[in-house]
Design brief:
The complex is a heterodimer of chains A (about 425) and B (about 160). By secondary structure, chain A is mainly α. In chain A, about 50% of the residues lie in helices and about 10% in strands. Chain A contains 18 helices and eight strands. Chain A is elongated, with a radius of gyration of 25 Å. Classes of the chains: A mainly alpha (about 425), B alpha/beta (about 160).
C-alpha cells in the first residue's frame, strides 16, 4: 500500500493500476496485424484483427499480395497456352483447374470427349482431391499443435506427386489436360501403381484418424469453433466442404455432373454441426469417397482414344505427323496460329477440393480468349471469416483459417 | 450441334418451364432487354438501372446462390462494359446468367450487396480491375491492386505488361 500522500495521488490518477477502460472507450480495444508473413495464414494473407483482450471483435482480410494478373495474361495467350496458367492459380489442385478450363473451352467448341479421357480425368481429379486434402489435414493439424500428422500426410502426398510425375512429367504444375482430351496416353504400369496406392489409402486415413479424431486436445480446439449457419454460408457465397459442413447438401459432382461423374457411385458427406470440427469430419469422409471413385474408375476404365476427333483442335499423333502431309499441316497450324473458337460465352464450374471452381470464358471468334475469369472458392469463403471469428478468441482464428483451407494463389490470381 | 436461341419471346417459347425467366418477365418485362439460350446456358440482359430488382426477382424464383460477379470490357464498342452475374439454384439445379450493359461515359451500376452480401468482394474486384463503380456498396475499395494504383488493369486499353 502507498505510504506517502504523493504516491497515493499517483496511484489514483494513473491508469496502469485501474481497472480496464470502460465499455465503448477507444482505449479498450487493440488492433493486431496478423500476416502477411505468418505461418498460420497459409501463404500471404494479412488479417487486421481488432481485439478486446483475447476476444476478436472484427477481422478484416487484406489480400492481393500474390496478384499477378493471370486473367489479363490469359487474354494474350492462345487457348491451349492458358492451361499452364490455370495450374498456377491453385497450386494444390492443378488437375481440377485444368479440367474446369478445358471443359469450358470444349463446351464452346462443342467437342465430344471420348470416355477413356473422361474417366482418366475423373481419376486424376480425385487423386488431386486427396492430394489437396492431405496438405490441408497436415497443415491444419499443425496449426492446432499436432505436428506428427503433417509427416504422415506428406508421406502419402509424395506418392500422389510421384504418380502425377509419372503421368504428366511434372509433380505439381501438371498441365496434363488438353482442350479435346489428354496430352498423352498414361504409361503402361500407371494404373497398377494407382491401384497399389488406393489399396493402401483407407488404412492410412485410419492412421490419421487414430491420431486426431479421438485426441481430446484436438477435439476441444475444434468443436463449437467458427460457427457458420447454412443461411450465412449461402449468403456469403461459401462453397465446398465448409458449405456441406453447414448442412447444405450440395456437390457439383453429383448435382450438376461433368466429365461423366454421373456414372460413379459415391456419397456426399454432410454435417449439421456448422463448426470447424464438422469441416474436419466432412473432409476426412470426402477422402474416403475419393478413394472409392478412383477404384471405380480403375475397374471400369474404358478402352479407346484419349483425344476427341477434331483435327483442327487436337494435335495429331507424332507418327502421323511424320508420315502424312495433312497431319503435318494441321500440326504446324495449331502450333503457330492456335485454333479458333466460335464466339460465345460459357461458364463451367467443377467441384474443386475447396469448393466451386468456375471458369467464365468469353470468345470473340479468334484464337485467343477475349476474357477468362476464374470464380474461386477461397475468395468467396474468405468473406465468411468475420462471421466465423467474431466473439471468439484469437487462437480460434488460426483454427478457422485452417478449416476453410484457403489457397492464396487462387484468391489473388 | 446446339443452335442458339435469340430474343426474349423465342427463349420463352424454348424454355417455358424456366422459373428465372418467367419471374423476370413477370417482375418487369421492360427491364428485360434481351435473352439468349446457347450451349445450354441461359443469358438474360437486364437494363442497367434495374439490376438490383432483377437479382431480387431471380432470388425470389428460388435461385438462391450468387456464384460470381464479373465484367467484360468490349472496348472500343459501346456500351463498353458488360457486368455479368452467375446465379445458381440449389433446389432446381440450374444456373442463370444476368448481364447488364454499362456505358463508358458513366461506368456505374447498383450494388447487389443488399440482395446477396457475398457480392461484396466480387464488386470490389470489378471496381478494382475494371473501374466500374457500384452504388450502395458498403466499402468500395481496391482489393487486388495497391490503394494508390493508377488505372484499372483488366480494361482492354491497359497494356498487358503495364505502363512503363
Amino acid at each position: 500500500m502507498p505510504t506517502s500522500p504523493d504516491l497515493a495521488k499517483f496511484v489514483e490518477t494513473t491508469t496502469l493500476l485501474k481497472a480496464r477502460p470502460e465499455e465503448g472507450s477507444k482505449d479498450r480495444t487493440m488492433v493486431l496485424n496478423m500476416g502477411p508473413q505468418h505461418p498460420s495464414t497459409h501463404g500471404v494473407l494479412r488479417l487486421v484483427i481488432e481485439i478486446d483482450g483475447e476476444t476478436v471483435l472484427k477481422v478484416v482480410p487484406d489480400i492481393g499480395y500474390l496478384h499477378t494478373g493471370i486473367e489479363k495474361t490469359c487474354e494474350a495467350k492462345f487457348y491451349q497456352q492458358v492451361v499452364p496458367m490455370t495450374d498456377r492459380i491453385d497450386y494444390l489442385c492443378p488437375m481440377t483447374n485444368n479440367l474446369a478450363y478445358v471443359l469450358a473451352i470444349e463446351k464452346l467448341l462443342q467437342l465430344e470427349i471420348p470416355d477413356r479421357a473422361q474417366w482418366i480425368r475423373v481419376m486424376l481429379n480425385e487423386l488431386t482431391r486427396l492430394n489437396s486434402h492431405l496438405v490441408w489435414l497436415g497443415t491444419h493439424a499443425m496449426d492446432i499443435g499436432a505436428l506428427t500428422v503433417f509427416l504422415y500426410c506428406f508421406r502419402e502426398r509424395e506418392d500422389i506427386l510421384r504418380l502425377f510425375e509419372q503421368v504428366s512429367g511434372q509433380r505439381m504444375m501438371t498441365s496434363y489436360f488438353r482442350v479435346g482430351g489428354l496430352a498423352l496416353e498414361p504409361p503402361l504400369d500407371f494404373f497398377d501403381r494407382v491401384r497399389d496406392f488406393v489399396k493402401l489409402m483407407p488404412e492410412r486415413i485410419d492412421q490419421y484418424e487414430n491420431l486426431l479424431t479421438g485426441n481430446p486436445i484436438f477435439v476441444n480446439r475444434l468443436k463449437g469453433v467458427g460457427h457458420l449457419s447454412a443461411a450465412d454460408a449461402i449468403a456469403l457465397g461459401v462453397t465446398g466442404p465448409p458449405l456441406r459442413a453447414s448442412g447444405v447438401d450440395w456437390d457439383l459432382r453429383r448435382d450438376m455432373p461433368y466429365s461423366s461423374y454421373e456414372k460413379f457411385q459415391f456419397q456426399v458427406p454432410v454435417s449439421n454441426d456448422c463448426d470447424v470440427w464438422a469441416r474436419y469430419v466432412v473432409r476426412i469422409q470426402e477422402m474416403r469417397e475419393s478413394v472409392k471413385i478412383i477404384e471405380q474408375a480403375l475397374d471400369g476404365m474404358p478402352e479407346g482414344r484419349i483425344t476427341a476427333d477434331a483435327p483442327k483442335v487436337v494435335l495429331p499423333d507424332r507418327e502421323k505427323m511424320k508420315t502424312q502431309m495433312e497431319s503435318l499441316i494441321y500440326h504446324f497450324k495449331i502450333v503457330t496460329e492456335g485454333f479458333t473458337v466460335p464466339a460465345g460465352q460459357v461458364y463451367q464450374a467443377v467441384e474443386s477440393p475447396r469448393g466451386e471452381m468456375g471458369y467464365y470464358a468469353v470468345s470473340d471468334g479468334t484464337a485467343k480468349p477475349y476474357r477468362v475469369h476464374m470464380r474461386n472458392p477461397s475468395f468467396a469463403t474468405l468473406q465468411a471469416l468475420q462471421t466465423m471469428c467474431e466473439g471468439r478468441l484469437i487462437a480460434d482464428v488460426v483454427a478457422v483459417i485452417g478449416s476453410i483451407d484457403i489457397v492464396l494463389g487462387e484468391i489473388d490470381r | 450441334m446446339d443452335s442458339a436461341v435469340q430474343g426474349k419471346d423465342a427463349v420463352l417459347a424454348a424454355l417455358p418451364e424456366n422459373r428465372a425467366l418467367a419471374s423476370l418477365l413477370q417482375w418487369n418485362t421492360d427491364a428485360v432487354l434481351d435473352a439468349q439460350y446457347a450451349l445450354k446456358e441461359l443469358t438474360v440482359t437486364i437494363a442497367r438501372d434495374e439490376i438490383r430488382g432483377a437479382c431480387q426477382a431471380v432470388k425470389d424464383a428460388d435461385y438462391n446462390f450468387l456464384e460470381d460477379v464479373t465484367c467484360v470490357d468490349w472496348y472500343p464498342s459501346e456500351p463498353r462494359f458488360q457486368v455479368t452475374y452467375h446465379i445458381l439454384s440449389h433446389s432446381l439445379k440450374d444456373r442463370v446468367r444476368l448481364i447488364s450493359p454499362v456505358e463508358s461515359i458513366d461506368p456505374t451500376i447498383d450494388s447487389i450487396t443488399p440482395v446477396w452480401p457475398s457480392a461484396n468482394y466480387y464488386e470490389r474486384e470489378v471496381w478494382d480491375l475494371f473501374g466500374v463503380r457500384f452504388h450502395g456498396h458498403p466499402e468500395l475499395r481496391r482489393i487486388m491492386m495497391p490503394e494508390e494504383w493508377d488505372g484499372h488493369p483488366l480494361r482492354k486499353d491497359y497494356p498487358v505488361e503495364g505502363y512503363r
